[in-house]
Amino acid sequence: NPDACAHLASLGARLFCGHDASNVSLTTQLVVRSQAIDASNAEVCRAHALGIPVVSREQLLGEIFNGFTHRVAVCGTHGKTTVTAMIDYLLRALGVCHSAFVGGFASDNNSNYTHGKGLVVAEACEYKNSFLSLFPTVTVALNVEYDHPDCFTDLNHVERVFERFFAKLPPKGLLVAHDSLPRWMLQGKNYVTFGGQDSYYRHQNVVATADGYTFEFCKGWQCYPTCIALLGKHNLDNATAALAVLDCLGVDVALACKHLPSFAGVGRRYKQHIIGGISIVEDYAHHPTEIRGSIATAKDNCTGGRVLVVFQPHTYTRTQALWRQFATCFEGADVVATLPVFAAREQPIDGVTSQRLLDDVVGVAHKKHLASLHEAASWLTSTARQGDVVLILGAGDVNKICNLLEQQKHH
Both ends of the chain: CA-CA distance in Å? Predict the structure, then answer.
């Protein structure tokens, strides 16, 4: 990512573009690798040969995270980044000293990191059991669904791993769990629920506005009026989770509710751009549940136009394992166009193509396959009309279409 590299260089980091064994020298003290980098990588092999320690990003995050007194981990199949960013934003707004590690860039300060002492908040990802490196004092569980089929066999497997993560809480630790979680996962834990009508923490009297919702945040019988400038009903649960965590940390939630309306969201989470009079929305949605949510949000906020979807499937294993769900999750869209599968860390799987997936998609009148991002931008320019909402969905590089559309508008 050239932009991220330029930012790091401005902070004084030395950068190497591309992987090469020569980038690792005798003066190197530690090699940290992401889950996308495997053991055969040239730099990893060179580090092992020189006896330099190699750790995963999650292990390093754990080393830092576990050193704090108060440790908040946000886990779940969906919503982690938004909730972590929301907690971080409210703590900053209220002047509470803390560190935060967010899985995306907050729109208000274009950063994914806050530095401070005493309290840490971090996103806890289940992929390859990554979150087992973290030892939180407060765990927030937003939802548990089947995903990451390259490392989990089924929903039961996912639930068991989340249960292992919950078990890492200390005796006086707290689990803040969404009401939808199976009760057996909460047994034996010190827990409080949010999101359900009977939950201790909940939202009520919801009214949709042009850019979000007004609602009341309730803890027990106490209710506080607030609002969020985020579209999508799932964000009501996200806001309730964030406010619940602040309350559990002893932060003044009445004050937090006053700051919540100015939370501007996170990059690539239902981010709207108006390009040539058309609403273009980039959204990280890459799981069927998230796609359904995006389409429902677009339909709620569409002023008489159509909902056009451009979807880039993310990884072959997910596309294969959730094929039937993907085939039915686009219902309600007027047009669905697919791009080739974004491989990320994977090799292709025979027969798993976005073209074949598109053939199986039901509940949509018009379907189109696009070969490239450039073709997608050209097709949208000729197809989208004023009043339409265009959803650019996926976790790969599909969001580059927004820049291509901007460039086409200027030419």
Answer: 25
Tokens of 290: 């998230």
Structure token pair of residue 151:
């490392």
Distance of CA 356 to the CA centre of its chain: 27
- φ/ψ of 208, rounded to 5, equals -70, 140
Tokens for 293, please give them: 């949510």
The amino acid sitting at 335 is: V
- % of the chain beyond a pLDDT of 70: 99
Instruction: Tell me which residue has tokens 């790969």.
Output: 396
Question: In whole angstroms, how far apart are CA 113 and each of 29, 102, 105, 202, 232?
Answer: 23, 6, 8, 28, 25
Q: Measured between alpha carbons, how far is residue 141 from residues 107, 182, 242, 409 in Å?
A: 24, 11, 11, 43
Q: Are 399 and 371 in contact (CB under 8 A)?
A: no
* DSSP-assigned beta bridge partners for residue 217: 203, 224
Element (H, E) at 157: helix 155-166
Q: What is the pTM of this model?
A: 0.86
- For 391, the enclosing helix (H) or strand (E) is strand 389-393
Question: What tokens does 86 get?
Answer: 């929301």
3-class SS at 359? helix
> Which tens digits make up the pLDDT trace of 195-252?
999 999 999 999 999 889 999 999 999 999 999 999 999 999 999 999 999 999 999 9
pLDDT in tens, 142-176: 999 989 988 899 999 999 999 999 999 999 999 99
Contact between 398 and 313 under an 8 Å Cβ cutoff? The reply is no
Kindly tell me if the per-residue pLDDT of 302 is higher than 80. Answer: no
Degrees (nearest 5) of the Cα angle 355, 361, 365?
105
Asked if 137 and 72 count as a contact pair (C-beta separation under 8 A), the reply is: yes
* Per-residue tokens: 29: 């003290």
Pairing mode of beta strands 271-275, 278-283: antiparallel
Average pLDDT over residues 36-49: 94
Helical H segments across 344-387, by residue range? 354-360, 373-383
CA separation, residue 235 to residues 200, 283, 290 (Å): 18, 14, 12
314-358, pLDDT tens digit by residue?
A: 999 999 999 999 999 999 999 999 999 999 889 999 999 999 999
Residue 155 is encoded by which pair of tokens? 């929903």
